[in-house]
Amino acid sequence: MNIGEFIKDKIVVILSNVLVYIILAGILLTANVQFIIIFFVFCIWFFPLISYMAIEFIRCKNYYNEINGILENLEKKYLLPEVVKEANFIHGEKLNAILKETSRDMHENVKFYRDMQLDYREYIETWVHEIKTPIASTKLIIENNQNEVTNKIDSQMNRIEGFVEQVLYYSRSSNVNKDYMIKPINLDNVVRNVIKRNYRDFIHKRIKLDIQDIDEIVYSDGKWIEFIINQIIGNSIKYSNNKEQMIRIYTIKKTNSVILTIEDNGVGIVPKDLNRVFEKGFTGENGRRFSKSTGMGL
């Protein structure tokens, strides 16, 4: 707060006092009161007013400057009501009370929605657990009754299983740190597990595989990295152009890391969409050409 802002805020009080004093001075002059007395009245009138406003300005300035300073240095600005000091004037006290009440209400709302989110996540995890039983039963029936029809059903069941897995991992994505177990894993084993899960689609779409030397040990979470690779390869299969489709998988070794590269010659991604492919719900230009695109996979 600066002096100009303070005067602007108090302009009505200042102008009212000046106007009343001018009227009083005019009456005194009309009554032939000496100028020295009128000046003395001016001093008695305005000295306390100016002193009060000066003290008020200093208190307000210190209070708001302190709030601005805290706000600038505070990373989580919603915590301002918790750290701001008590004010020593009535307007500041009222503002503090309002801020604290607002903060309390916000925390209650955040807790409410967090509880809702937790309940929803628990429901999803329970649903996924329950749905796996009929899926497993169906796959067992298919295995015991092999024919062309059941093979097609099995292919669709694998897709359903993939979607169920996607739902489960997405529900856990907000708390990935609690579901992570980092340990040495073999990239070749992970990739081949994914290929095995999708082998029917590779055969159906006649997609050639070129898997180079990927026998590398990396530190990661086996379940999560397999899920991620499955999403990428699933996209390659889904958006294949059915013309000599090929997927190449290889690694690039660096000093402290290994880069797993998955390439295909499918429809690709329009260059202008590359920066947004990891945004939830973004389908892009090519995605709009495929009615089943959801923008959730990547």
TrEMBL record:
This protein's GO CC annotations: plasma membrane
Protein topology in the membrane: Multi-pass membrane protein
Keywords on record: ATP-binding, Cell membrane, Kinase, Membrane, Nucleotide-binding, Phosphoprotein, Transferase, Transmembrane, Transmembrane helix, Two-component regulatory system
Enzyme Commission code: 2.7.13.3
Transmembrane segments: 12-29, 35-55
GO biological process: cellular response to phosphate starvation
Histidine kinase domain segment(s): 126-298
Reactions catalysed: ATP + protein L-histidine = ADP + protein N-phospho-L-histidine
SUPFAM superfamilies per UniProt: ATPase domain of HSP90 chaperone/DNA topoisomerase II/histidine kinase, Homodimeric domain of signal transducing histidine kinase
Cellular localisation: Cell membrane
InterPro entries: BphY/WalK/GraS-like, HATPase_C_sf, HATPase_dom, His_kinase_dom, HisK_dim/P_dom, HisK_dim/P_sf, Sig_transdc_His_kin-like_C
GO molecular function terms listed in the Swiss-Prot or TrEMBL record: ATP binding; phosphoprotein phosphatase activity; phosphorelay sensor kinase activity
Keyword Coiled coil assigned: no
Protein name (record): histidine kinase
Protein's organism: Bacillus cereus
